[in-house]
Design brief:
- By secondary structure, the protein is mainly α.
- 53% of the residues lie in helices and 8% in strands.
- Strands 1-2-3 form a three-stranded antiparallel β-sheet, with no helix packed on it.
- The protein is globular and about 60 Å long.
- The model has no long low-confidence stretch (mean pLDDT 88).
């Protein structure tokens, strides 16, 4: 069997058009930043103020996203009476779980071109009946909206801890 020269391999448009791959990559990177921030916030609320402390990685690096959200919820519930900027934590927890679903839709879904028309599609559970699978068209703008929703929640997590607003960022509808 002949060896493939990776440097010369032309992957343009494979397995999806490049504009989709760019947005999927962007979405994945923004998600990774949110996960890292969530771990740091949980560690900080738990009393680890030095985020380079190796205990941070031992204690908070293994739970999955949902566990970290639950840790955040429990810590905020405990600390909220004495920390006014934590009062909106229930809404933030709901937002975190909502963007996890959005992330899962695009990063765990199987997007592929429709062989008949070339449009990018993916199979997803029907909203009214999750046991039913429907085929849904995916556009680049859908991926961008998902990425922006994740980024918005990332800033809400940040604001929870520092209590600052972001006047430099316009919201999207």
């Amino acid at each position: 069997m002949e060896k493939i020269d990776i440097d010369k391999l032309d992957l343009e448009g494979w397995p999806l058009p490049d504009d989709y791959l760019i947005e999927v990559g962007r979405l994945a990177l923004v998600w990774g930043r949110l996960e890292n921030l969530l771990r740091n916030v949980v560690a900080n609320l738990a009393g680890l103020e030095n985020l380079s402390d190796p205990r941070l990685f031992l204690v908070f690096n293994h739970p999955d996203f949902e566990h970290n959200v639950e840790l955040l919820r429990q810590l905020c519930k405990q600390l909220a009476p004495g920390t006014p900027n934590l009062k909106h934590y229930p809404e933030l927890v709901a937002q975190l779980l909502a963007v996890k679903k959005i992330r899962d839709t695009y990063l765990n879904g199987a997007m592929s071109p429709n062989p008949g028309n070339g449009e990018i599609e993916m199979d997803v559970p029907a909203e009214h009946n999750p046991a039913e699978i429907i085929t849904r068209k995916v556009q680049v703008v859908d991926l961008r909206c998902a990425m922006m929703a994740i980024d918005d929640v990332q800033h809400e997590v940040y604001n929870l801890v520092v209590g600052l607003e972001r006047p430099d960022r316009a919201s999207i509808d």
